[in-house]
Amino acid sequence: MKSQLFISSALLAIAFPNIAIALPTEDILEQISDYNTTQPMTQVTSVSQLRDVSPTDWAFEALRSLVERYGCIVGYPDRTFRGNRALSRYEFAAGLNACMQQMERLIAASEAVTREDIEKLKRLIAEFETELATLGARVDNLEGRVAFLEDHQFSTTTKLSGEVIFGLASIFGGQKTSITDVTTNIPQVPVLGDRVRIELSTSFTGKDLLYTRLATGNFPDFADPTSANTQQASLAFAQPEGNDVAVEVLNYNFPLNDNITVWLEGAGGAFDDFTNTLSILDGDGGSGALSSFGTRNTVYYQGEGAGLALEGKMGSFGWSLGYLATDANNPEEGNGLFNGAYGTLAQIGYYPSDKFGIAFAYGQGYNSFGIGENNRRFAEIVADSPIDTSHNIYSLTMSWKLADKFVLGGWGGYANVRNLNSFDDGTTTLSRGSYDTWYWAATLGFPDLFKEGNLGGIIVGMQPWQTNSTITNNGVRLNKDDTSFHIEAFYEYAITDNIKITPGVIFVTNPGNDSKNDALVIGALRTTFTF
Questions:
Q1: pLDDT: which is higher, 116 or 178
Q2: I want to staple 22 with a disulfide (CB 3.0 to 4.6 A). Which of 136, 265, 471, 531 is the partner?
Q3: Residue 169 forms part of a structural domain
Q4: 411 DSSP β-pair partners
Q5: Which residue among 97, 123, 151 closes a domain?
């Protein structure tokens, strides 16, 4: 019996290192001796995986919700508890202690712990007080830690996070405008600007999320006519707002069932909110690629606004479907949620593992120049004209992690853009018609390059260029675009977990898809602080 006592106590100490084990009674030792300890402990994420815990017990549901939210209980590889009912209660007591410690760690890291979960924890502590005492865990200490959690949270429902970017960049090279054939000297002045985001993530049930983003900044958009005058020069972290703070994004998502999530986009909604972009270089400007083109597939740039979306999964397949209206809050005629500019997206993807994924997307829009404006010649013609446009776009995206530190990615697409009415102001006569546009990109990602947390990236591709056109401007059909290549390289170095610095260069041949234009070179140095 002494040998059995020693072995059982040692095994409990190994199984539950965070709990001080007191020597139980002889009856309890007999129960413990039946516990099979021949297999190592592994992490599970759901109490439902521990089949010996009765699903009819209120504690089952209470602990299940805590475990699934905070991932804080362990069990055997076969997902069972092997003791009798009393022994299962001891396991519950151990899991309860582990959840308490996990929640405390999350609070220390500024993660949200809901008041509802804290109340569940209190009730479980009261229910398992005897088991906790038997195992040597001090109930008063646990209750003290509960009080600590309540007193040191930013909010019981909301997590606060933020991102600050300092950007230093400059355009190099000259350019001749393709419309007037007049040589224009692009300003080659280095600029220093910023982009700031404050994010509030609120959950009311533990499964839903109300997301609010406040943003400001003053980093210029190099695609502006006063600089490069082409979308090919657009940087992903541009925020030319003059440092005026505003609500940039507001959305709410909640599960309709286990496989479908509903998204309500109140403001600033984007298609990448609810769609898997399959790009390791997609850091939304704060990390990853420096350019908008290198960040993600062009199909996701169909404008932003308010609307509704659904996101779901079916085994290894995932899908999303969304509608966003650019001027949804504008009550004027020809605007609003359904009468003005809009974009739609439907995507289905195959994700057999976390190393490979491929997705097909279809987009359709009206007066949404997220696609049409990529062609500089067409955008300049219709910019000041009352022309209504529509587009249909088809795309394919792929990501393949060939090795731990090497990810091959790429995307491509085709779009047909139409102007729906003719225009004649006595000076310019623009006919109805359409044109085709194509684009593609190949990406190489090098995660943890030279150091954990770093990221290297190379992007080679062609931003949307016009091919066939039936549109005439003053009787002359729009010409086919010249070939233009986008080449980009960057290296993101993690100084700490919260500070990253990213130097990079972007090279564009024949900017504006015009061979008369000099090559465009952009050098950038981005420093990102996260908290």
A1: 116
A2: 136
A3: yes
A4: 397, 441
A5: 151
* Alpha carbon distances (Å) from 498 to 214, 459, 492, 505: 19, 25, 12, 23
- Render pLDDT for 26-80 as a digit per residue (tens, 0 to 9): 444 444 344 333 344 444 444 444 444 466 667 777 777 777 777 775 554 444 4
Long-range CB contact pairs, 55-59, < 8 A, 24+ = 59/92, 59/124, 59/127, 59/128
Q: Residue 175: give the domain boundaries.
A: 158-385+492-530
Residue 396 lies in a domain: no
- If asked whether residues 162 and 143 sit together in one domain, one would say no
Sign of the CA dihedral 234, 239, 240, 246?
positive
Distance CA 327, CA 347 (A): 24
Can you state the angle between helices 26-33 and 85-108, rounded to 10 degrees? 80
Q: What is the DSSP letter of 516?
A: T
**Separation CA 104–CA 109 (nearest Å):** 9
243 dihedral zone (left: phi>0; alpha: psi -120 to 50; beta): left
User: Rounded to whole angstroms, what are the CA distances from 504 to 187, 305, 336, 448, 491?
Assistant: 19, 31, 41, 17, 6
Task: Provide the number of structural domains found in the chain.
Answer: 2
- Whether residue 322 sits in one domain with residue 213: yes
Say yes or no: 147 and 244 in one domain.
no
Residues 472-476, mean pLDDT to the nearest whole number? 78
Interatomic CA distance for residues 440 and 396, integer angstroms:
9
Considering the domain architecture, whether residues 194 and 105 belong to the same structural domain is answered as no
Rounded Cα gap, residues 112 and 477, in angstroms: 59
Show the tokens assigned to 116.
Answer: 């509802």
Specify the 3-state DSSP secondary structure of 95.
helix
Same domain, 138 and 199: no
Nearest-angstrom CA–CA distance, 345 and 394:
10
* 151, 178, 202 - which closes a domain: 151
Mean pLDDT value of segment 91-101: 73
Strands (E) in 341-496, as ranges, are 342-353, 356-366, 389-403, 406-419, 423-424, 429-430, 433-447, 455-469, 472-473, 476-477, 486-494
Of residues 360, 365, 364, 334, the one with CA closest to residue 347 = 360
Residue 428 lies in a domain: no
- CATH code for the domain in which residue 330 is found: 2.40.160
Side chain identity at residue 57, one-letter code: D
My answer on whether 170 and 92 are in the same domain is no
173 and 221 co-located in one domain: yes
- Beta-carbon contacts of 52 under 8 Å, excluding residues fewer than 6 positions away, are 80, 81, 82, 83, 88
- Residue 205: the pLDDT is 87
pLDDT range class, residue 474, cuts 50, 70, 90: confident
Higher pLDDT, 95 or 218: 218
Residues 198 and 335 in one domain: yes
**How many C-beta atoms surround the C-beta of residue 274 within 10 A?**
22
Cα separation, 470 vs 205, whole angstroms: 54
Smallest Cα–Cα separation from 277: which of 259, 260, 298, 258?
A: 298
Which residue type, as a one-letter code, is found at position 175? Q
Query: Within a domain: residue 394?
Result: no
Q: Is 123 helix (H, G, I), strand (E, B) or coil?
A: helix
